[in-house]
Design a protein that fits this description.
The structure is a homodimer of 117-residue chains. The first copy, chain A, is mostly helical and 117 residues long. Chain A has a domain at 3-78: Arc Repressor Mutant, subunit A. Chain A is 56% helix and 10% strand. Chain A is built from six helices and two strands. Chain A has helices spanning 3-13, 16-28, 35-42, 46-58, 77-91, 95-100, and strands spanning 62-67, 70-75. Chain A has a two-stranded antiparallel sheet with strand order 1-2. In chain A, strand 1 and strand 2 (70-75) form a beta hairpin. In chain A, helix 2 (16-28) packs across helix 4 (46-58) and helix 3 crosses helix 4. Chain B binds a DNA duplex (30 and 30 nucleotides) through residues 15, 17, 34-36, 44-55, 66, 68-71.
Chain lengths: 117, 117
DNA sequence: ACAATACTTCTATAATATTCGAAATATGGT
DNA sequence: ACCATATTTCGAATATTATAGAAGTATTGT
């Protein structure tokens, strides 16, 4: 994943409403959820919600599939997995993270153990 | 971590320049780096860089410490670790992620294996 | 004391994102 | 065919964020 792409994904999730929508869809699992239900749960105006759903779709974090009159939106787990992998590999310095990204070959390995103040 | 806070962190990293700055500081390790060097590497105007450093500082992703005429900025690994943990627990449905967050008790566990089309 | 360096804060401007009413589109029910 | 429902797109107002020159604050060297 390129940095540009990662920034796009991060920005998409970096908004309270969109993060809430995405979390709801992750929670909903493969069943997904319609805008109607989402809007009711999160108390968002249809047009506003549609705008955010379009944004999340555009960057690939969710996917919508028309089913008769409804649209079933589902979280795209592959994309969020990639984002987490990117953060772990490139941005993370934690013990857990270092273990996973071992061998990524960056100077981050120089990191000394943080003292929990 | 609350969602509000997570959204703030994601938004902070959701900008190409700030993500680049943060990655550079992670890469730099505990040694950190001065704005002068960062600005040179990333070709950013001092005022612009200062603005982004302030933003990253405000949300706790980096920390600056004055040293004579310079300021040493360092990545705060604890914060990014928390963010990755949040994503893994609340937003992630991947195999790797599920393994780590096992027992978080959300409906995400219902997820079926994605078919790689 | 003065000049140079390292950075920040101030200020204005430009660019982008967010919100949501209203109109449009599509589908299903009667 | 017509009405209701689900959702999107349009459009316009508002709010937020980004950019960077210029001025300000420290600090070091001479």
């Amino acid at each position: 994943m390129v940095t540009l792409n990662a920034a796009e994904l991060l920005a998409a999730l970096g908004h309270e409403s969109r993060l809430a929508v995405f979390r709801l869809l992750v929670e909903a699992g493969p069943e997904g959820m319609n805008p109607g239900v989402i809007g009711e749960k999160l108390e968002m105006a249809p047009a506003t919600l549609s705008f955010h759903l379009a944004h999340l779709s555009r960057v690939g974090l969710i996917r919508g599939q028309k089913e008769s009159r409804f649209i079933r939106y589902c979280a795209d787990y592959g994309t969020i997995d990639e984002l987490v992998a990117f953060l772990t590999k490139n941005c993370c310095g934690g013990e857990a993270c270092l273990a996973k990204s071992a061998g990524s070959g960056t100077a981050a390995k120089r990191r000394i153990r943080k003292i929990t103040s």
